[in-house]
C-alpha cells in the first residue's frame, strides 16, 4: 500500500518554518494596529458570483481556471476564496459598515486557494496578509496602505525594496488607452507569440506583463497609460506621487505594471525585493473604486494590498534572517522510571503552574541519563532537573546547568523560587 501524500500544490508548515510565520503575523498585527487598522475574519467559502462579478471574468484566476468551485445540491455554486478583497467589500455592504464612522480600515490574515501551476513561491493554498481601507477617496489612503506594506518588510529586516507604481485609470480614461494599446500591438502582430495574441484578444493590458522574448523591445515603444489619464485620475496620481516625494520615499513608475484582477482603478502598486529569486513581488495592491457596484452595492471607494506570507518567509530564509529567539529556555525533567518518574511528573506540572517552560522526559520503562541529556541539548534546554532515588528519598531536586556552572541539589520546595531567581 502506498503512503498517502499531500495534495499537489499544498504545503505543510513545519515547526521550523512556523517560527517565521508567528513572527510575521505578530509584526503585521502590531504594525496594522498602530496604523489604526482592525482585524476582520471572513468565511473561506463565498458564492462564486462574488468573484465572477467582483474580480471579473477577465481576471487571471478565471482565464486560467484556477478557482476551486463546488456545485451544491441546491443548485448554488460556491468557491474557496481565491482572494480577500471581494469578500471584504461583500462584508462591508452586508454588515452595514457603510453606516459606521468612515473610513473602515481592516486587515485580514488567512488561507487563499488558487489552482495554479505549483512552483517555488507559488502554491495552490497560500496565506495572505491584507490591509484594506473602504469608503475613502483620498490618495493619502493609497499612501497609507503602501507604507504599511513597505514598513512591514523593513521591520522584518528586508532591504533592497522598491515600489513599483502605476495608475490604471478609470472607466472614463481606461477604454481610450486600451484602444491605443490595441492598435499599437495590432501593427506588430508578427512579433507576438501565440500566448500574447491570446492575451491581446482577451485582456490587452496583460500583454504589458508579457515575459516573452522580444517583448521588452516591442513594449518600449507602446503607449503609456499615464499619458491618457483623465483629469480626476491624473490629479489623484499627482497627489500620491507628491506625498511619496515629500516623504523621501522612492518609487519607479512602471507603465507595464498591470495587475491580474479586473477591479483595479487608479493606483496599482507592488513591492519588489531585489535578489530574492523568481518571485520578487512581495505584495500587490491598488484601488478598486468600482468593486462595490460590480457586486450590487452603492459607489464605495477602496484601496488595499495583499501579501503572501510564504513569500515573505522564503525571502527571509534566503537572506539568512532569523526570527527572534523564544525568550523562555526549556527545562528538562529527567528521571529513572518507577517512583522517580512519579515525582518527576508532579514536579513538571508544578513548574508549569508557575509559568516555567518545562519538558518531561518520556519513557515507558527506564531510560538512560545519556539519552535524556541528549534530548535536553537538542531542545536548547538551560537546565536538566534530575530526580533519582536519593532525590525522592530526600525530597530534593538535582539541577544540572547545561551552559556551564556547578551541579547543585536543592530542596524541592525551593525549586520554583530558585529557577525564577
Ligand atoms: P494578488 O497579486 O493576486 O492580489 O496576490 C497578492 C499577493 O499574494 C502576491 O503579491 C503574492 O505575495 C501572494 N500570492 C498570490 N498568489 C500566490 C500563490 N499562488 N502562492 C503564493 N503566494 C501567492 C490579490 O489577491 C489582491 N486581492 C490584492 C489586493 C488587496 N488588492 C487590493 N486589495
Q: What does it look like?
A:
The protein has 421 residues and is α+β, with helices and mostly antiparallel strands. It folds into 2 domains: 249 residues, BirA Bifunctional Protein, domain 2 (2-Layer Sandwich), CATH 3.30.930; 90 residues, Rossmann fold (3-Layer(aba) Sandwich), CATH 3.40.50. It is 37% helix and 21% strand. It contains 15 helices and 16 strands. Strands 1-5-6-11-10-9-7-8 form an 8-stranded mixed sheet. The protein has a 5-stranded mixed sheet with strand order 13-12-14-15-16, sandwiched between helices. The longest helix has 20 residues. The chain starts with 14 loop residues before the first helix and ends with a helix. The mean pLDDT is 95. The structure holds histidyl-adenosine monophosphate. Histidyl-adenosine monophosphate binds next to strand 6, strand 10, strand 11 and helix 11.
Amino acid at each position: 500500500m502506498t503512503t498517502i501524500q499531500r495534495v499537489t500544490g499544498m504545503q505543510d508548515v513545519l515547526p521550523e518554518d512556523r517560527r517565521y510565520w508567528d513572527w510575521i503575523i505578530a509584526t503585521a498585527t502590531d504594525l496594522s494596529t498602530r496604523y489604526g487598522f482592525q482585524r476582520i475574519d471572513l468565511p473561506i467559502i463565498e458564492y462564486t458570483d462574488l468573484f465572477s462579478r467582483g474580480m471579473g471574468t477577465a481576471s487571471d484566476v478565471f482565464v486560467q481556471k484556477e478557482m476551486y468551485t463546488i456545485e451544491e445540491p441546491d443548485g448554488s455554486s460556491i468557491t474557496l476564496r481565491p482572494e480577500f478583497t471581494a469578500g471584504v467589500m461583500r462584508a462591508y455592504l452586508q454588515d452595514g459598515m457603510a453606516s459606521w464612522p468612515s473610513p473602515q480600515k481592516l486587515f485580514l490574515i488567512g488561507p487563499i486557494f488558487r489552482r495554479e501551476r505549483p512552483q517555488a513561491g507559488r502554491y495552490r493554498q497560500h496565506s495572505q496578509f491584507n490591509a484594506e481601507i473602504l469608503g475613502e477617496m483620498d490618495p493619502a489612503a493609497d499612501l497609507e496602505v503602501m507604507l504599511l506594506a513597505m514598513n512591514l518588510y523593513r521591520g522584518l529586516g528586508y532591504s533592497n525594496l522598491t515600489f513599483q507604481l502605476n495608475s490604471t485609470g478609470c472607466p472614463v480614461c481606461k477604454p481610450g488607452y486600451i484602444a491605443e494599446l490595441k492598435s499599437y500591438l495590432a501593427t506588430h502582430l508578427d512579433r507576438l507569440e501565440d500566448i500574447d495574441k491570446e492575451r491581446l484578444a482577451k485582456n490587452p493590458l496583460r500583454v504589458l506583463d508579457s515575459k516573452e522574448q522580444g517583448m521588452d523591445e516591442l513594449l518600449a515603444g507602446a503607449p503609456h497609460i499615464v499619458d491618457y489619464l483623465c483629469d480626476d485620475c491624473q490629479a489623484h496620481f499627482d497627489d500620491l506621487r507628491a506625498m511619496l516625494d515629500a516623504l523621501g520615499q522612492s518609487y519607479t513608475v512602471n507603465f507595464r505594471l498591470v495587475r491580474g484582477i479586473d477591479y483595479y482603478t487608479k493606483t496599482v502598486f507592488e513591492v519588489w525585493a531585489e535578489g530574492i529569486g523568481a518571485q520578487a513581488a512581495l505584495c500587490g495592491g491598488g484601488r478598486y473604486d468600482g468593486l462595490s457596484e460590480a457586486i450590487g452595492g452603492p459607489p464605495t471607494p477602496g484601496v488595499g494590498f495583499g501579501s503572501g506570507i510564504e513569500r515573505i518567509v522564503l525571502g527571509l530564509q534566503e537572506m539568512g534572517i532569523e526570527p527572534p529567539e523564544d525568550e523562555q529556555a526549556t527545562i528538562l525533567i529527567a528521571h529513572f522510571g518507577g517512583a522517580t518518574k512519579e515525582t518527576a511528573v508532579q514536579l513538571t506540572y508544578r513548574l508549569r503552574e508557575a509559568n516555567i517552560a518545562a519538558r518531561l522526559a518520556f519513557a515507558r520503562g527506564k531510560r538512560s541519563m545519556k539519552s535524556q541529556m541528549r534530548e535536553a541539548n537538542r531542545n536548547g534546554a538551560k537546565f536538566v532537573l534530575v530526580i533519582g532515588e536519593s532525590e525522592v528519598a530526600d525530597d530534593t531536586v538535582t539541577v544540572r546547568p547545561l551552559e556551564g556552572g556547578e551541579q547543585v541539589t536543592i530542596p524541592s520546595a525551593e525549586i520554583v523560587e530558585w529557577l525564577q531567581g
